[in-house]
Amino acid sequence: MRLLVFDPGETTGWSFLAEGRIVGGSFSLWSEVKPLIDKHQPTVVLFESFNLRAGAARHLIGSSFPTIQVIGVIKFVADEAGITCVSKGPAYRSGIYLKGIKGFDRHARDATKHGLRYLAKAGFYKEYRHYRGQRRNVTRF
Fold first, then answer.
1. What CA–CA distances, in Å, run from 48 to 1, 7, 136, 137?
2. What is the CATH number of the domain that holds 48?
3. Statement: residue 120 has pLDDT above 90
4. Of 29, 53, 64, 110, most Cβ neighbours within 10 A?
5. CA torsion, points 94, 126, 24, 107, in degrees to nearest 10?
6. Is there a contact between 112 and 104 (Cβ–Cβ < 8 Å)?
7. Domain that holds residue 19
8. Residue 77 covered by a domain
9. Considering the domain boundaries, does residue 34 fall inside one?
């Protein structure tokens, strides 16, 4: 499986997981969605979903909702390329602890956590277990 994962927002983190290897980074808004999909040719695109919660509503007054705009671009580009597109909530990555991945900021790490959980549920745990952290009581991916 060739999995491209996005953590959308004003700074969008991304991670590409294939054959036991992970690459990733981040960019502003949606500028790199299509080039990344074209470059990596994923079989599945996964992104973190966004739901407006009452507690955050006041904080987002006047927002243009950049996260939603990025998600729209991701879904459009994936659909145009005929690639399966899947969304998972922010809690999907909870309980995953990663060893440090050189050059990955918080957004790229969050995307990677989503990807590792998704791959584990699809039966690809062994290929990625060397990225697992050593904390106790964390979900095994």
1. 19, 5, 25, 24
2. 3.30.420.10
3. no
4. 110
5. 10
6. yes
7. 3-131
8. yes
9. yes
- How would you list the strands of the sheet with 3-7, edge to edge? 21-28, 11-18, 3-7, 44-48, 84-88
- Residues 51-94 have pLDDT tens digits of 656 666 566 565 555 777 889 899 999 999 999 999 987 777 76
Q: State pTM to two decimals.
A: 0.83
**14 in any annotated domain:** yes
DSSP label of 59: G
> CA nearest 11: which of 100, 99, 104?
104
In a domain, 73, yes or no: yes
The label of the residue with tokens 């729209």 reads: 72
Token pair of 117 as six digits: 């959980």
| List of long-range contacts for 30-33, beta carbons under 8 Å, 24+ apart | 30/69, 30/70, 30/73, 30/74, 33/6, 33/70, 33/73, 33/74, 33/77
- Decide: helix, strand or coil at residue 110: helix
User: Based on the structure, what is the number of domains in the chain?
Assistant: 1
